[in-house]
Amino acid sequence: MKRILFLALLAGCPGTDTDTDVDTGADTDTSADTDTGADADTDTDTDTDTDTDTDTDTDTSDIQTVTAVMGERCEPHDQIGEVRLSVQGNSVNVTATVRDSFPAIPATPTASTDYCDYYTFDPSICGDCDGGEICMPDGQCAVRPASLQTPTLAITVDGVTTELENTSGYIYGNSVAMADDTLDVALRWPGYVVSVTDAYFPAAVTGLSASASGGWDAPGTVTMTWDPSRGGGVVFTDIPMNHHIAVPAFTRCEASVSVGSMSATPAMIDPLAQSTGLEFQGFQIEIPAAAQTDDGCIQFTLGMQEYTSVSYPNASF
């Protein structure tokens, strides 16, 4: 607030003595006390408090900023969210979600090979869980993970940023422009900014195939092959339990595109081929990146889906 005070003091008027006495000593003293030191107190110290602290607290110390590590993948039991960018023609489709707790996946696989892991556990160890709860591998019931409503996603391609909003816990984006070189992706929700920078898409892989050594009801070993490439990235597949069976189980395989093949054993495949058979979903050619936060791991993947069915050359129908 500015405050300026001016105080004027008026001195006495000059004496106009009209005495006609010819005495010319008519007091002509015109000293009208013209002292201009009117004590106007022109002190310009206006005490103008220029403190512009509007209490707009910009403290970001409570926000955890994490940059994903290219080439890394989250451990399945620790993954609370994912951001997937998938090439579709000349554009990119985007999906993303973040959950409020961990999935019901054991920390240690039941069976492993060089490139594949099989995860499962017996959910009956928990007994009867309440409605809305699931059995966890440690034998405890827990509230089923729910997708958060707050995360948003920003994708920067060639200097242009596209903001994607959250719809009922999920983020979708269609026809996002392809990057000529690299792109940046930032996932935000209260308390976190998780990003991947200078990300890129892998080159296409040719010659993809999957073949089972057995039949529909017992596929046996599934061998997956492709033409080796030096283009970078991995060949990835996630084979779920048949959707008619309420048992938490899946087999995950991943190998560098330069390797050319990988296989999952009967112990990893046959338990999944129940009811209507093995639900092989094909392959993803992708560049993974993982970001470890205090709440769990966020998985980024940039790539393309290749739909390939398993062949059964030894099956008798």
Shape: globular
Uncertain spans: 1-58
Strand content: 35-45%
Radius of gyration: 38 Å
- Termini gap: 92 Å
Class by alpha and beta content: mainly beta
Mean pLDDT across the residues is 85
Number of strands: 22
Number of helical segments? 1
Q: How many domains would you count in the coordinates? A: 1
Largest sheet: 11 strands, mixed
Provide the succession of SSEs: EEEEEEEEEEEEEEEEEEEHEEE
Helicity level: under 10%
Describe the structure.
The protein is mainly beta and 317 residues long. The protein has one domain (64-311). The chain has one helix at 266-269, and strands spanning 64-67, 69-70, 79-88, 91-98, 111-112, 116-120, 133-135, 141-143, 152-157, 160-164, 166-167, 170-177, 183-189, 192-199, 209-212, 222-225, 234-240, 249-256, 261-264, 283-292, 297-306, 310-311. Strands 2, 3, 4, 5, 6, 11, 12, 17, 18, 20 and 21 form an eleven-stranded mixed β-sheet that branches. Strands 1-14-13-9-10 form a five-stranded mixed β-sheet, with no helix packed on it. Strand 3 and strand 4 form a beta hairpin. The longest helix has 4 residues, at 266-269. It is globular, with a radius of gyration of 38 Å. Residues 1-58 have low confidence and may be disordered.
Quickly describe the structure.
This protein is mainly β and 317 residues long. 1% of the residues lie in helices and 38% in strands.
For this entry, give a set of tags.
single chain, 317 residues, mainly beta, 11-stranded mixed sheet, 5-stranded mixed sheet, 22 strands
Give the arrangement of secondary structure elements.
Layout: E1 64-67, E2 69-70, E3 79-88, E4 91-98, E5 111-112, E6 116-120, E7 133-135, E8 141-143, E9 152-157, E10 160-164, E11 166-167, E12 170-177, E13 183-189, E14 192-199, E15 209-212, E16 222-225, E17 234-240, E18 249-256, E19 261-264, H1 266-269, E20 283-292, E21 297-306, E22 310-311
